Amino acid sequence: MRVHSECLTGDALGSLKCDCGDQLAFALDTIEEHGGMVIYLRQEGRNIGLLNKINAYALQDKGLNTVEANHQLGFAADERTYEMVQFILNHYGIRKIRLLTNNPDKISALEGVKIVERLPIVIEPNAHNEQYLRVKKDEMGHLL
Predict the structure, then answer these.
(1) Which among 20, 44, 103, 118 could bridge 10 via Cys, Cβ 3.0 to 4.6 Å?
(2) β-strands 38-41, 2-5: how paired?
(3) For position 111, what pLDDT does the model report?
């Protein structure tokens, strides 16, 4: 199972500034091969919305990293929540999952389900997202 938050720029437009589209593609390939599901959450820009995400991009172009840009706009580093995931899993009677994620917040948020295995999503960085990935690892604790 993949819990994926909406990223219009990465998922639909192929932005190289993040790894979202690549993570979604990796998850879909894995699920096609082994079965499973994607829960796609409408939480654009770590749940700050598309307009604020574009504003954060502008701040990043001025030298701030993704966390600093969110803080500058008055947001936490990550505003996402995962209550809906638990609701969906309960609806389908799913009690055990293999979770495709690098995000420790997703792991801890899924208290009502047994995570039998965490499967990392390994994406090769590019020149445009290298710092973004470093910040995810060093400042947000992602398991990269």
Answers:
(1) 20
(2) parallel
(3) 84
